[in-house]
Amino acid sequence: MAWNQTRQIGEIQVTSLTDASFGLDGGAMFGSVPKTLWERVAPADELNRIPLRINPLLIRLGDENVLIETGFWDRGGEKFESIYGLDREETVFRGLDHAGLIPDDIHLVINTHLHFDHAGRNTTALNEPTFPNARYAVQKRELDDARHTHERNRASYVPDTYEPIADAGMFDLIDGEHELRPGVTVLPLPGHNLGQQGVVLRSKGQTLVYVADLVPTLAHAPTPYIMGYDLYPVTTLETRKKYLPQWFEEGALICTPHDPRTAFARLQENPRGGFVAVPDEGQDT
Ligand SMILES: [Zn+2]
Q1: 109: which of 21, 40, 74, 136 fits an S-S bond (Cβ 3.0–4.6 Å)?
Q2: How far, in Å, from the CA of 20 to the mean position of ligand 1?
């Protein structure tokens, strides 16, 4: 079981969570990569969908609990659920419960971006903050873009998942790279859109990176395996070339938001250039 695994990054404890499994068109997920290549690493179902999950991450910092991503929006109705093939057997709430926590115990939520599969559980069915005692950290750019959509990105945003947070004054709007807590830094990772941020944890010489949709699953680690969904694919390429070598050099643990099986991975050099991501066999602590 890949979820609710705990790892220690120096003094920071992290626990892998998952919120839902779903499917998206494999062609859209791999952009310009031909199906003959991607289906070897991500076999498709009869509707050409590949299996995905949304994988939030719980961070324990002394007395503080931090949650990266809140989960997949659950108020789209039956047709929405069937389009995405949603299976909600595992939820972020079950994962927190397993970790001995309830939503009130979360002090800080980090939204990598505001797409409904990542920030969908920011609010409850009553349009109230799901995590009433938390600040919600998002890039200012991302909230601005969510409020000024166009035909290409509009379907990714559900205002009910962020406007109530803004109305309650619970957003911390971040501008660029910023250390939110000692050892917890958010880092702009543009390409999927322009307001996306990843999260870098560094403690006692160890590093973990929550890469957001820069690398949505392990299968996407090869440099040109870029989603058709990305608004700025060449920017994704540049962001990967900037950071993947650095994270590889640091021996960072890598957490992807959508891998269907693996919570923690590491980068390895690909003999043909760039990197591949392999499951990390480290011990659950
Ligand atoms: Zn995503």
Answers
A1: 136
A2: 12
Q: How far apart are CA 116 and CA 77, in angstroms?
A: 14
CA distance 159 to 83: 20
CATH number for the domain that contains residue 34: 3.60.15.10
User: How far does the centroid of ligand 1 lie from the alpha carbon of residue 112, in Å?
Assistant: 9
Considering the domain boundaries, does residue 203 fall inside one? yes
Residue 44 lies in a domain: yes
Q: How many domains does the chain have?
A: 1
Q: Does 285 reside within a domain? A: no
Dihedral angle, C-alpha 33, 72, 59, 173, nearest 10 °: 90
CA dist 205 and 214 (Å) reads 24
| Ligand 1 center–CA 216 separation, angstroms | 7
**Per-residue pLDDT tens over the stretch 169-191:** 999 999 999 999 999 999 999 99
Question: Residue 25: is its pLDDT beyond 80?
Answer: yes
pLDDT of residue 285: 61
Residue 284 falls inside a structural domain: no
197-203 β-sheet, strand order: 178-181, 184-188, 197-203, 206-210, 253-255, 265-269, 275-279
pLDDT of residue 284: 67
